[in-house]
Amino acid sequence: MSFSCKKYTAKVLDRQAPSAKLHVTGRCKMPTREDALALVKSKVDNKNLVKHMLSAEAIMRALAKKFSENEELWGLAGLVHDVDYVQTEKDPKNHAKIGAKLLSELGYPKEVSQAVMAHNPENGSIMETLMDKALYVSDPLTGLIVACALIHPDKKLSSIDTEFVLSRFKEKRFAAGANREQIASCCGIGLSLEEFVSLGLEAMKGISKELGL
Ligand SMILES: [Fe+2]
């Protein structure tokens, strides 16, 4: 199955405001990565979900580096993006809304809470920045890559490559929860599917120990 980038972009991304460079100004203290990880662990007791957020962080950092954006800021957004998951598991319309509010109250940069909020279009939010869109496309890629590693006999990320992930991508029923259209909307941030999968896979390989894969 192939996805039309133009079609998908028209449906989901074109109606959004043009992406904007992020500006981090006038802030005294941005929560550190350690703060963010402690927050996530205090709210989420599911280890696999924490690993999912660590994976999103790694991919967001790699994307920020590729686009010469703020790696700390983008990484933070990935790391905390599902902080309200336990609270909103059965309430998708509020997923990420509650998390974004919590992050704002805790002094996280507006760009982070906005990206967190916008990664779930079901809550009525709209992606505005490149960072918002990057988080949206990174979210489901983590699950596809983990599923690919787990079907390999040694269950290691080091044993799979981009070609393998791309071939599984085409199998609709494999890791069906990893939304293919959402992943394919990486064209909206200027990356081909192959480039995005390759970047995501390398990023996750970089934290394979933490992921236990
Ligand atoms: Fe997520």
Structure description:
The protein has 213 residues and is an all-alpha fold. It has a single domain (5-17, 31-211), classed as Hypothetical protein af1432. It contains twelve helices and no strands. Helix 3 runs antiparallel to helix 4. The protein is globular and about 45 Å long. Residues 52, 56, 81-82, 139 line the site of fe (ii) ion.
Describe the structure concisely.
It is built from twelve helices and no strands. By secondary structure, it is mostly helical. The chain has one domain (5-17, 31-211): Hypothetical protein af1432.
Distinctive features:
213 residues; 58% helix; 12 helices; single chain; Hypothetical protein af1432; binds fe (ii) ion; mainly alpha; globular
List the helices and strands and how they pair.
Layout: H1 5-13, H2 33-43, H3 47-66, H4 71-80, H5 85-88, H6 97-105, H7 110-118, H8 130-151, H9 162-169, H10 180-184, H11 193-205, H12 208-211
Helix pairs in contact: 2-4, 3-4, 3-8, 3-11, 4-7, 6-7, 7-8, 8-11, 9-11
The site of fe (ii) ion has 5 residues, from helix 3.
Task: Supply Rg.
Answer: 16 Å
General shape: globular
Count of distinct strands: 0
Query: How much helix, percentage-wise, in residues?
Result: 55-70%
**Poorly predicted segments:** 1-27
* End-to-end C-alpha gap: 28 Å
> What is the CATH third-level topology name?
Hypothetical protein af1432
Count of domains: 1
The average pLDDT score comes to 88
Question: Which structural class do the helices and strands define?
Answer: mainly alpha
Largest sheet: none
Ligand names = fe (ii) ion
Q: What letter string, H or E per element, gives the SSE order? A: HHHHHHHHHHHH
Which architecture name does CATH use? Orthogonal Bundle
The top level CATH class name:
Mainly Alpha
Strand content: under 5%
Secondary structure tally, helices: 12
Question: Can you say what the CATH homologous superfamily is?
Answer: Hypothetical protein af1432
